[in-house]
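Researcher: Let's do a round of design. I'm pasting the structure tokens now; please hold your answer until I've finished.
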């Protein structure tokens, strides 16, 4: 794998960063996970905008100008022979505060570290879509937005890792995190949707969750199809009594959830509206690719 590190592409074994990097010492950095379909990047500008907003949220200036990013992402794909007729690409951009003396002051780190990695995208198996996955409601609460805003896609991911550890210990695919007021938020790397009496429901951004790019597309496509949508404040009982449930993110698209906390959702099979939303997403996704 060839990795872009700071200002050039280097071999994987040469792609090393300093132990003084504040990304390593303090989780002081931001990242974005992007994908392509063939050689066209999905929602490229929206991902790059969110990267800029995340960096802005921690007062980090991205050292590479805006107009250079599309070319760099494509160069990463070409050099690694991914993002073509044979494979869709997974791309990860990481930008940390950079190396500096020990201490929290960002001024200790004059130069941010920039990394771009890419590899073939590994989508969930067909069985995952056919059978659905199980979730638990984690004891770990989602970060309070006034403590660490979940809209900042930060390399400090311990909040989500703690919830993922709970899911693994329970034998579940993932965890749903509640917020400080016991409202549903999201899962560890995906947004959460459920269906109640024909209405497509999802926690409002104000509950403290990442403004997922797939979430946004699912909401717009649902509105276009006249499916009633509720972005709101929901408690655990809303998910336990839902007719259907699914989760979304860039690499998984729409994955049905059939069990929550050991109880079946609806009839315990992927729901009809869930399947309709996913089919509609697949049918429309070229609208969201680069030209
Ligand atoms: N929520 C969290 C915490 C995430 O990390 C992610 C994606 O990585 C998402 C939601 C889904 O976001 P997107 O649809 O932009 O991939």
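Researcher: That's everything. Go ahead.
Model: Designed sequence:
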């Amino acid at each position: 794998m060839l990795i872009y590190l700071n200002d050039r592409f280097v071999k994987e074994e040469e792609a090393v960063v300093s132990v003084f990097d504040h990304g390593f010492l303090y989780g002081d950095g931001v990242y974005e996970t992007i994908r392509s379909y063939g050689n066209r990047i999905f929602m490229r500008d929206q991902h790059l905008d969110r990267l800029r907003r995340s960096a802005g949220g921690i007062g980090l200036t991205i050292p590479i100008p805006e107009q250079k990013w599309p070319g760099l992402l494509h160069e990463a794909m070409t050099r690694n022979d991914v993002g073509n007729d044979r494979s869709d690409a997974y791309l990860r951009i990481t930008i940390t505060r950079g190396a500096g003396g020990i201490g929290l002051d960002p001024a200790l780190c004059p130069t941010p570290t920039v990394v771009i990695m890419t590899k073939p995208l590994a989508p969930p198996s067909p069985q995952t879509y056919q059978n659905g996955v199980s979730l638990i409601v984690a004891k770990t609460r989602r970060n309070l937005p006034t403590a660490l805003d979940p809209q900042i896609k930060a390399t400090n991911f311990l909040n989500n890792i703690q919830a993922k550890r709970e899911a693994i210990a329970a034998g579940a695919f993932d965890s749903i995190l509640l917020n400080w007021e016991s409202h549903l938020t999201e899962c560890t790397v995906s947004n959460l949707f459920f269906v109640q009496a024909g209405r497509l429901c999802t926690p409002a951004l104000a509950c403290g969750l990442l403004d997922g790019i797939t979430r946004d597309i699912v909401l717009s496509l649902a509105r276009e199809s006249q499916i009633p949508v509720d972005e709101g404040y929901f408690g655990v009982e809303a998910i336990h009594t839902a007719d259907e449930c699914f989760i979304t993110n860039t690499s998984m698209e729409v994955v049905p959830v059939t069990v929550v906390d050991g109880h079946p959702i609806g009839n315990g099979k992927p729901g009809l509206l869930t399947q309709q939303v996913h089919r509609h997403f697949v049918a429309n996704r070229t609208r969201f690719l680069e030209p």
